[in-house]
Amino acid sequence: MRELERAAEAQAGDPERALLIERTRRFKSSWVELAEALSALSRSERYRAWGYESLEAYAKGELHLRPETVLKLTGSFAFLQRRAPEVLSRDGVGRKIPSYQAVDFLRRAEEGSSAPRDLVDALRAEVIDEGRAYPTLQRRFGDAVLGGPPRAESSEAAGLRNVARRLLELVEQASIVAPGHKSELVAALSRLLGSLDDEPPS
């Protein structure tokens, strides 16, 4: 948080950039604002004027957000816009806003699951209406809704996740990779990381 405070001071002359940093600082209590700003930045590609080749590179370099977190944030925001826009008008006090991890879990269930409709509907009610925590949802619905791998295979997923993260870091730092190819590789690796059933970021 101290790094973000210093970044906010350093970028005070650029309102849009300072706003993104400030929303990251408030991320724990209001992910929707940050997701909305990141989605707008993705469309405008203003990060290029700030010296970054991709949204993921900007978010990692200045906001200290992992690429898979950015993917889940923007994906969850887009999902709510399409499938549950009323959630975006909640104040987070009178009506709870579900976590982005929970929304991402629901998104994957609704868009890529062959689970029975009543089970997916039950998950939707727990996420949208009840605001259940992601770990609770994962325990109750994980394997049944997403057909996730058995727990005995979780070490394989963890190993793949570690390799993908390391490769992502190497690609982002590589000077011999053409910018266009680098963006494609970063996007592909981010999608892979987003698809793995990892723990919510701290």
Ends: how far apart? 12 Å
Q: What Rg do the Cα atoms give?
A: 18 Å
The secondary-structure class comes to mainly alpha
What's the shape?
Answer: globular
Low-confidence stretches: 149-153, 197-202
> Largest beta sheet, briefly?
none
Please tally the helical runs, counting DSSP H or I stretches of 4 or more residues. 10
Beta-strand percent range: under 5%
Overall mean pLDDT stands at 82
Listing every helix as H and every strand as E from the N terminus to the C terminus, the arrangement reads HHHHHHHHHH
Helix percent reads 55-70%
The counted number of beta strands is 0
Helix-strand layout with pairing:
Elements (H helix, E strand, L loop, with lengths): L1 H9 L4 H11 L5 H14 L10 H8 L4 H17 L16 H13 L4 H13 L4 H13 L7 H20 L5 H17 L7
Question: What does this protein structure show overall?
Answer:
There is one protein chain. The chain has 202 residues and is mostly helical. Helices cover 67% and strands 0% of the residues. It has 10 helices and no strands. α3 packs across α5 (67-83) and α7 (117-129) runs antiparallel to α8 (134-146). The longest helix is centred in the last third of the chain and has 20 residues, at 154-173. It is globular and about 50 Å long.
